[in-house]
Design brief:
alpha/beta, 6-stranded antiparallel beta sheet, 545 residues, single chain, globular
Length: 545
């Protein structure tokens, strides 16, 4: 009976090889087969990338684990598993004793109904593709005797099948060459910060990634717009690294940080004697980016006088250094970014109309963090993995209450705010825990999310006209149209109760609109004039069923 069950599972995995499945789904189904056969509590597939192991799929771990990476030198168990392979005839599998004192990388990350944190029985195997270690697969169980009666023949068969699935996936999607090229260029040309990956699998991020892939291969000017802290610079880097200019330089300029007197020199260069202090010729950012990409962040801050000269460079591909009348030809891919409404700036005469149309050949909107759902937890996992090394802790993880608080918060400061909030929370958690603890759990109180929500509401109140905000002003204006007189709010003379008054108004108004639309949230969102996901998020925060 047991062999029959094994054969049925294997048949399913083999059948999947002939199907057109996304790589992540193929891996997820493979790991579920591992758990079904060996009755383990968690199974993880990790790919070897330099000195790190990167999770490609995880079954049984908390969602933030997929946002992490595991430096091999910092995880002795993973290091021992990899050490078992030097050539294809050596043993690939390693099982750890139940009383092993080595820290487990998954402590605190395994989903358990009883809240138990520490792993008791674990084993791993090296996966070999084309006679090279591709990565490892690990199995973990809370029962210390779980793998005592494991059939080695079945285990070896599953290892071999996993290697086939991985190789097939790589051939189907033909991504190996592109990934290797990007990684090599990243390692040789850019710093650790530059090589940060865009993390996220929400529909909004998937759409953005498709847009990036579409525009990257062209030389079209791209304008990236979105709220502060949402990751516009990462999008620019990703466009460059996916383009045919990837082997050339990406030069970044923050226009808002340039003194107005130095903007022209910084962008176009100068010759000796052009102004006091100009003792020698100096190349500008355009010439430094020749044959590569120039990224102008906060483009809306450029003075009108410089906008005219920028337009000439874009139109004719030539510039003049400050103090010189000799033109210089440049071949530059231009990417710009802003958190301002450039169309409004054009209407107000603060931005040139002709330049605006030159820059917006291909606009890309970076979604705000509150539009990205569970990406918040993936990003949190990535940040916590970096933070725990900086503060000297072993394993930082989030409690369920902390996860819910992060998902409910509005994030006016977006990804940048998330990183800073988690850094502060980690310091608070470190203060009440020993650095020798195997797992440090961040609680809701560490996040101080209630205080942050107050700041979020204030920030949203001052940014009421953004297209994704569910602000008090927007709700109130719709309320006037829909019959606000039926809603009664008891007011008090205390500024500290403003948030409660606002929440009470929103609660009553949303309930009234839901009733008028027979409980249909989609129809209610349309009637109110907000995005349905934002309405759901607000209902969740206000505890509206």
């Amino acid at each position: 009976m047991e062999n029959l069950h094994f054969i049925e599972i294997i048949d399913t995995v083999i059948y999947d090889l002939s199907r057109e499945l996304p790589k992540y789904q193929r891996y997820n189904r493979l790991l579920q087969a591992w758990r079904d056969i060996f009755s383990c509590d968690a199974c993880v597939l990790l790919k070897l990338a330099g000195d790190n192991l990167i999770p490609k799929s995880a079954n049984g771990l908390q969602i933030d684990a997929m946002g992490r990476h595991f430096p091999i030198a910092e995880h002795p168990r993973l290091e021992q598993i990899l050490a078992h392979y030097e050539n294809e005839i050596q043993k690939k599998v390693h099982r750890f004793d139940a009383d092993c004192e080595l820290p487990d990388p998954y402590d605190g990350l395994i989903q358990t109904p009883d809240g138990q944190l520490n792993v008791h029985d674990c084993m791993g195997a090296v996966l070999v593709i084309d006679n090279k270690p591709w990565g490892i697969i690990t199995m973990d169980a809370l029962n210390p005797q779980r793998f005592d009666s494991l059939d080695p023949k079945i285990l070896n068969s599953m290892i071999g099948l996993t290697e086939v699935v991985i190789k097939t996936a790589n051939l189907i999607f033909s991504l190996d060459q592109k990934v290797q090229r990007q990684e090599q260029v990243t390692a040789s040309l850019i710093s650790e910060k530059f090589s940060e990956k865009m993390i996220g699998s929400s529909p909004a991020m998937n759409m953005l990634n498709l847009e990036i892939d579409l525009v990257a291969d062209s030389d079209l000017a791209a304008l990236i717009y979105g709220e502060s802290g949402s990751g516009k610079e990462l999008v620019a880097r990703r466009i460059h690294m996916s383009s045919k200019r990837a082997k050339e330089a990406l030069i970044t300029v923050n226009c808002a940080a340039l003194p107005e007197t130095m903007v022209e020199s910084e962008l176009f260069g100068h010759v000796a004697g052009a102004f006091t202090g100009a003792t020698k010729n100096r190349l500008g950012k355009f010439e430094l980016a020749d044959c590569g990409t120039l990224f102008l962040d906060e483009i809306g801050e450029l003075p009108l006088s410089i906008q005219a000269k920028l337009l000439r460079v874009i139109q004719f591909g030539e510039l003049q250094r400050l103090g010189s009348d000799k033109p210089h030809k440049v071949d530059v891919r231009l990417i710009t970014a802003t958190n301002r409404d450039l169309a409004k700036a054009v209407a107000e005469g603060r931005f040139r109309d002709d330049l605006y149309h030159r820059l917006t050949v291909y606009p890309l909107k970076v979604p705000s963090l509150r539009e990205r759902g569970n990406d918040i937890l993936l990003l949190a996992g990535s940040f916590l993995a970096k933070i725990q090394r900086k503060v000297g802790l072993n394993n930082l993880t989030l409690s369920k209450d902390a996860e819910r608080a992060l998902l409910a918060y509005e994030w006016p400061g977006n990804v940048r705010e998330l990183e800073h909030l988690l850094s502060r929370a980690s310091l608070r958690a470190a203060a009440r825990n020993s650095k020798d603890d195997r797992v440090v759990v961040l609680e809701n109180r560490d996040l101080d999310i209630e205080s942050a929500i107050g700041e979020s509401n204030a920030s949203l109140h001052t940014n009421m006209n953004t297209d994704s905000d569910v602000s008090e002003k927007g709700m109130a204006s719709v309320g006037n149209v829909a019959g606000q007189d039926d809603i009664v709010i008891s007011t008090v003379d205390n500024d500290n109760n403003l948030k409660q008054i606002t929440d009470d108004f929103q609660t009553q108004f949303i309930k009234k609109m839901l009733a008028e639309n027979n409980g249909n949230s989609a129809a209610t969102a349309r009637a109110i004039g907000v995005d349905r996901s934002n309405l759901h998020r607000l209902m969740k925060r206000l505890d509206i069923q």
